[in-house]
Specification:
The protein is of the alpha/beta class. The protein contains 18 helices and 14 strands. It folds into 2 domains: about 20-55 and about 70-205 and about 360-430, D-Maltodextrin-Binding Protein, domain 2 (3-Layer(aba) Sandwich), CATH 3.40.190.10; about 205-355 and about 435-475, Periplasmic binding protein-like II (D-Maltodextrin-Binding Protein, domain 2). A hairpin with a 2-residue loop joins strand 8 (about 270) and strand 9 (about 275). Helix 1 runs antiparallel to helix 3 (about 130-140), helix 3 runs parallel beside helix 4 and helix 17 runs antiparallel to helix 18 (about 460-475).
């Protein structure tokens, strides 16, 4: 088969899913919230979200005499030493990411740290701020892809089965890096048939953000919001005013990537054994709880208070609580610095369990790179504790390595600690929504939730209809 024909076939294979996935949008930046945020909203960067202007990274001495420029963390991955990989002398790596200038600044600082360890590797950074997934699929089809790049679920699904991603396992073994060194199930998203094709670079998880000034005025201690009854009562008591001046206790959302966190608190699953598993009484009750806040006037959709998303509504003081992720922290720091708030774990139903949803993306490399050793070393370094620690300290994103969960940083940043701890017990969105069919499953569930909020269907019939659709999707 000629190279031209092969390229044409591959282009069709990669682009057909784009045309088929109605409503799928490119990741605007940050960590894996993907379509959960409206245009202009923040996502977990890498994301996480876009931070305020970042300070320059301090200079660190070059490695020498066996000493590491990163102190006790050494040149480690989650558990190993990336300098054990023998990189190709004179390697040049093209690197592509999404992200605005602030995120690009964070990445450039990371590349500078890598260069201290591998001064003979040249990195050419080529950001793609918009249409990243579409661009990557076209470049991969044309054999013009970068060497190292951001990887989300849609790209993992498109590239890994076709042998287009560099397998990292041998390099991880050389460096002494294990997937067990990453928080929870984050690394599993980027594995296929027991092989690892990407490593999680940072993550975001859902928590309940509470305006502490509004809570104090209502006589509520946010730390005492432990149960769903507490949550509902707090929303009711913090709802104040009338008409255009009304402040709602809760910002609600019918996005399934918010609602499902409540389902999981009742032990629900989206699908099991190629069958939908969510149209149960527990899920009905969880959805009813969330919808009742809205129906009873204690909660509002963002557009009903003139906002694009719940983070904006919260920052503008139009709602007292918002169920959002770690991307809220840098967003509020930049856009609403005068808002006093606290992040708390999502309250639990009586007899339920602690739950959250977790989002992430990865660094990965092309299987066709001319410099596989250097590309693998860069991926392992970028996802290492040595690199994630200085990023964490900018407030830009949370680390994915368990080695940093006990870092002193969290003693001074309790809101970030709440998000980080949720990474250990939360469910990874890309897995629970069935990675291979995620976009279609989410679309079906979002349609069902919207029909409930619009009053078009009762909860059980809406779930039953969605269950039929999801079963058909996941059984293909």
């Amino acid at each position: 088969m000629s190279r031209r024909i092969y390229a044409l076939i591959l282009l069709l294979v990669l682009l057909i899913p784009i045309l088929a996935a109605c409503g799928q949008t490119d990741q605007p930046g940050g960590t894996g919230a993907e379509a959960t945020q409206p245009a202009g909203a923040e996502t977990p960067a890498a994301a996480a979200a876009t931070p305020t202007a970042l300070s320059e990274q301090g200079e660190t001495p070059p490695p020498g005499g066996g000493a590491s420029p990163f102190g006790d963390l050494a040149t480690a991955g989650s558990t190993g030493d990336v300098t054990k990989i023998q990189v190709e002398d004179g390697a040049e790596l093209r690197v592509a990411t999404w992200g605005d200038p602030s995120e690009q600044e964070v990445n450039q600082a990371a590349f500078d740290r890598f260069k201290q360890l591998f001064p003979n590797v040249n990195i050419v950074y080529q950001p793609v701020p918009t249409e990243f997934q579409t661009t990557m699929k076209a470049d991969m089809a044309g054999n013009t892809e970068p060497d190292v790049f951001y990887l989300d679920t849609s790209l993992m699904n498109a590239f890994a089965p076709n042998g287009l991603l560099l397998q990292l396992d041998d390099y991880m073994q050389q460096a002494g890096v294990s997937v067990d060194g990453y928080i929870g199930e984050l690394a599993q998203i980027f594995q296929l048939d027991g092989k690892t094709y990407g490593l999680p670079k940072d993550f975001g998880a859902l928590a309940l953000f509470v305006n502490t000034d509004m809570a104090q005025q209502a006589g509520i201690d946010p730390q005492n919001i432990k149960t769903w009854d507490d949550w509902n009562n707090a929303a009711q008591q913090m709802t104040q005013g009338e008409g255009n001046e009304k402040v709602f206790g809760q910002c609600t959302s019918h996005d399934i990537q918010r609602v499902a966190a409540l389902w999981f608190a009742r032990g629900a699953e989206i699908a099991e054994n190629n069958q939908a598993a969510f149209n149960t009484e527990d899920v009905v009750q969880a959805t009813q709880f969330w919808y009742d806040m809205y129906r009873n006037g204690y909660a509002a959709l963002p557009n009903e208070v003139g906002a694009d998303w719940c983070g904006q509504a919260f920052g503008e003081g139009k709602v007292a609580m918002a169920l959002e992720g770690g991307w809220m922290i840098p967003f509020l720091r930049r856009e609403a610095p005068d808002v006093n708030y606290v992040a708390i774990p999502i309250p639990q139903p009586e007899g339920g369990q602690q739950a959250s949803l977790v989002f992430t993306n990865a660094w990965a490399a092309s299987a066709r790179t001319q410099y596989p050793n250097a590309a693998a070393a860069l991926v392992l370094f970028l996802t290492s504790a040595a690199n994630q620690k200085p990023i964490m300290e900018t407030g830009f994103a949370l680390p994915t390595v368990t080695a940093l969960l006990d870092d002193p940083y969290f003693e001074q940043h309790p809101n970030e600690r709440v998000i980080a701890e949720a990474g250990e017990y939360g469910r990874v969105a890309d897995l629970v929504f069935t990675r291979e069919h995620k976009d279609d499953v989410i679309k079906s569930l979002n349609t069902a939730m919207e029909s409930i909020w619009l009053g078009q269907q009762d909860i059980q019939p809406a779930l039953d209809q969605a269950a039929q659709e999801v079963t058909q999707i996941v059984s293909q």
